[in-house]
């Protein structure tokens, strides 16, 4: 059991590192936020191919109450980790 838990934690850590690395490419101001228009590219770079409808659902999940045009890493990371784990 402990090995399964360790393997799962290692997988999650690796996924989160990949997500942060992909996010950082588009975080031009190094403030842990990216332009909302870049999210599709980031998601696709992680190996997902969402439809426009699925992409809008994901964006609705991570956008601020008052849309600013930017997505924060702290909202994007848990959502994208979940999406990638569901895909595995």
UniProtKB/TrEMBL annotation:
<keyword id="KW-0677">Repeat</keyword>
<feature type="domain" description="EF-hand">
    <location>
        <begin position="14"/>
        <end position="49"/>
    </location>
</feature>
<dbReference type="InterPro" id="IPR011992">
    <property type="entry name" value="EF-hand-dom_pair"/>
</dbReference>
<dbReference type="InterPro" id="IPR002048">
    <property type="entry name" value="EF_hand_dom"/>
</dbReference>
<protein>
    <recommendedName>
        <fullName>EF-hand domain-containing protein</fullName>
    </recommendedName>
</protein>
<dbReference type="GO" id="GO:0097228">
    <property type="term" value="C:sperm principal piece"/>
</dbReference>
<dbReference type="GO" id="GO:0005509">
    <property type="term" value="F:calcium ion binding"/>
</dbReference>
């Amino acid at each position: 059991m402990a090995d399964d838990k360790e393997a799962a934690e290692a997988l999650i850590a690796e996924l989160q590192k990949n997500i942060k690395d992909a996010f950082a490419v588009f975080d031009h101001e190094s403030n842990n936020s990216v332009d909302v228009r870049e999210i599709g590219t980031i998601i696709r770079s992680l190996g997902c191919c969402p439809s426009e409808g699925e992409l809008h659902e994901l964006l609705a999940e991570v956008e601020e109450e008052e849309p600013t045009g930017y997505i924060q890493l702290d909202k994007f990371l848990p959502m994208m980790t979940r999406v990638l784990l569901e895909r595995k």
